[in-house]
Design brief:
CATH architecture of one domain in chain A: Alpha-Beta Complex
Number of strands of chain A: 10
Structural class of chain B: mainly alpha
Distance between the termini of chain A: 38 Å
Protein name (chain A): Glucans biosynthesis glucosyltransferase H
Organism (chain A): Pseudooceanicola pacificus
GO molecular function, one term (chain A): hexosyltransferase activity
Subcellular location (chain A): Cell inner membrane
Radius of gyration of chain B: 26 Å
Shape of chain B: elongated
Radius of gyration of chain A: 26 Å
Pfam family, one (chain A): Glyco_trans_2_3
Strand content of chain B: under 5%
CATH topology of one domain in chain A: Spore Coat Polysaccharide Biosynthesis Protein SpsA, Chain A
Oligomer: heterodimer
Strand content of chain A: 5-15%
Largest sheet of chain B: none
Largest sheet of chain A: 7 strands, mixed
Chain lengths: 593, 59
């Protein structure tokens, strides 16, 4: 059944999602409260109820997003055939301390793909690299890129003296100095890869809708090698399109911007998105870190439409290869999202933009709330008064307290159900509409989903700890900065993993010990959380090991997209005789080819 | 000789051939700074209230 929600259908979708989330949150809170008050109402019971209300509503929100995305689109977004010559377009590649061999090889592949698609776009590499030696390497490899692609006059490179405002400042600097020459700008990350035909399609959609200020694509992950990386790659290809379609059904005119693999109308961006430096010191003051969400909100504030079109194919990026790299990136995003708390009440923003900020904050704070829920549950059990079997003095028979196990088990099943439902629903959808064929067939997709569920369940408590620490660090005023991505770091030894996660093992062991001595009846409930924490170093090291293609198969692996294949070829040639440490990320991709 | 050394040798020093043609063409565009901070004094107060106990813990 295809679904078209019509012009105002997004309001209906938003109301349905919010109502569903609120209803399930309240139901969970009701069950928890009923189960908690058998020995009288205490502070801990109220706290526990509030915490389960927020966490369940948050889980239900994610579930609803997936359910909304299940039916296919009935109508595709407005599109037109690209007029030739098309509007002047530039592809922006901001870089900062990246491996130049891999970065410029990607650009060479995209340039060739643009050429083949008949797109006449300039490419501007905007370097914020601080290290002079690294900058010299960039210049060397840029010279080769120019020579091989005959790029004089259409492929540009510049390095800023001062990297004010980081990536957002880098783009802003380009727009202030050179933006007047272009109608559209495709914004990429250093690890982005886009087909020329995809960029052509994006230009066509922008030309067809003059009020469209920004069009975001859903990038798929390519080149993953480790178990963790491949699980993320599978998840991004199998689950994310459905979640993104659900998001698209709720977006209206206020869709998302994820910072890269998107096209903007330069004039709209220039007139709306000049970011101020926030008053005060980091982490809450200073430059806006997660600038993309804010830029989307500002475009919408100025009346421009911002939209994600998840149906656009040919948009790729790379992902972290292990939990530690993921957590490092997450630390930056956590700070960026919590900083948005300063902007929730910024003047003139659309209501949905404000809500998106709240969502971003909840995405991180929810980990802390889950952690708080577990702690409060232990405290509540420890401080609960002993049962009074003879409340009346002249009572002949004892009165046993009501057994509330049913409520608690019901609640646990409900929460697990909320976690499983989207994945099971998406698996069913893929089996029914044939999408599973791209993932090795129905059985292969089923095996991958089961493995992903197992892996994500094992790693969830570890992620919860990293996220909780990140939130606490930001709240205590610790600025994590915005360190460059360390792409290509893959396999971790047990000692590497131990150094990065020993504290999680200690917390896990302490929670088990505390529960054993103080509240043994909770031990069985804590096991699924505490055991993975104790085993965190082993899990992190194990999941960072290279994994074969037996599980987590994705379509882009069976047949590499043209631009990805071209990148691998170019990178292979360029890095062919280089020392292994110079091959960077591309080395992994070559191995995958 | 590594590929990278070959590149360097071929171009002697890329920075020597670097010139204005490497820079994107000049076409200035005004980009006014947006106002985002207003009416958020109480949000700051909430943030301060949330952070204060943590800061005390940190000493």
């Amino acid at each position: 059944m295809a679904v078209s929600l019509g012009t105002d259908g997004f309001r209906l979708a938003r109301i349905a999602a919010l109502t569903f989330s609120a209803a399930l949150g309240l139901a969970a809170a009701g069950l928890m409260f009923e189960a908690s008050i058998q020995d009288g109402v205490q502070l801990w019971d109220v706290l526990r109820t509030l915490l389960i209300l927020v966490t369940t509503a948050w889980l239900a929100w994610g579930t609803m997003q997936a359910l909304l995305g299940l039916p296919p689109r009935r109508t595709l977004p407005e599109r037109g055939e690209i007029g030739l010559p098309h509007a002047p377009t530039v592809v922006l590649v901001p870089i900062c301390n990246e491996d130049p061999v891999a970065t410029f090889a990607r650009i060479a592949a995209m340039d060739a793909s643009l050429d083949a698609a008949g797109v006449n776009a300039d490419i501007a590499i905007l370097s914020d690299t601080r290290d002079d030696t690294a900058a010299t390497r960039e210049r060397d490899w840029f010279a080769r890129l120019l020579a091989e692609r005959h790029g004089d006059g259409r492929i540009f490179y510049r390095r800023r003296e001062v990297n004010t405002g980081r990536k957002a400042g880098n783009i802003e600097d380009f727009i202030r100095k050179s933006g007047g020459g272009y109608e559209f700008a495709v914004i990429l990350d250093a690890d982005s890869l886009m087909e020329g035909a995809t960029i052509r399609e994006m230009i066509a959609r922008m030309e067809a809708e003059p009020e469209l200020g920004l069009l975001q694509t859903l990038p798929k992950i390519v080149g993953a090698q480790s178990l963790f990386g491949r699980a993320m790659q599978f998840s991004a290809s199998f689950f994310s399109p459905v979640f993104a379609r659900g998001l698209a059904r709720m977006q209206g005119r206020t869709g998302p911007f994820w910072g890269h693999n998107a096209i903007v109308r330069v004039r709209a961006f220039a007139e709306s998105c000049g970011l101020p430096s926030l008053s005060g010191r980091p982490p809450f003051g200073g430059h806006i870190l997660s600038h993309d969400y804010v830029e989307a909100a500002l475009l919408a504030r100025a009346g421009w439409k911002v939209r994600v079109d998840e149906d656009i194919e040919g948009s790729f990026e790379e992902g972290p290869e292990n939990v530690v790299a993921f957590a490092r990136r997450d630390r930056r995003w956590c700070q960026g999202n919590l900083q948005h708390s300063r902007l929730i009440f910024a003047p003139g923003l659309k209501g949905w933009s404000r809500f998106v900020f709240v969502q971003g904050i909840l995405a991180y704070v929810s980990s802390l709330i889950w952690g708080a829920f577990l702690i409060v549950s232990i405290v509540a059990a420890v401080t609960a008064p002993a049962p009074d079997y003879f409340p009346d003095i002249y009572q002949l028979f004892p009165v046993f307290p009501d057994d509330r196990t049913k409520q608690i088990v019901g609640l646990a099943i409900g929460i697990v159900g909320l976690l499983l439902l989207p994945k099971v629903a998406i698996l069913t959808e893929s089996a029914l509409n044939g999408r599973a064929a791209g993932f090795g067939g129905r059985l292969s997709a089923l095996r991958s989903v089961l493995c992903e569920l197992l892996l994500s369940s094992l790693l969830a408590p570890v992620m919860l700890m990293y996220q909780s620490r990140a939130v606490l660090q930001v709240l205590t005023g610790r600025d994590g900065g915005w360190p460059a991505n360390q792409r290509g770091e893959g396999r971790l030894s047990l000692s590497d993993a131990w150094r990065a996660s020993a504290w999680i093992s200690v917390v896990g062991a302490a929670s088990l010990a505390a529960s054993t001595y103080l509240a043994p009846e909770l031990l069985i409930w804590l096991m699924p959380v505490s055991l993975p924490m104790v085993l965190a170093p082993m899990l992190i090291a194990w999941s960072s090991q290279p994994a074969g293609q037996g599980v987590f198969r994705v379509p882009q692996e069976d047949q590499a997209p043209a631009v990805v294949a071209a990148y691998r070829d170019i990178h292979g040639t360029w890095a062919g005789h280089a020392a292994p440490e110079d091959t960077g990320t591309g080395g992994r991709l070559d191995a995958a080819a | 000789m590594s590929a990278e050394q070959q590149i360097s040798a071929r171009h002697h020093n890329a920075s020597a051939i670097e010139g204005p043609h490497w820079e994107p063409p000049s076409a200035p565009l005004d980009m006014p700074t947006q106002v985002l901070e207003a009416q958020n004094r109480w949000v700051d107060a909430v943030l301060h209230w949330l952070s204060a106990p943590m800061l005390r813990l940190r000493g």
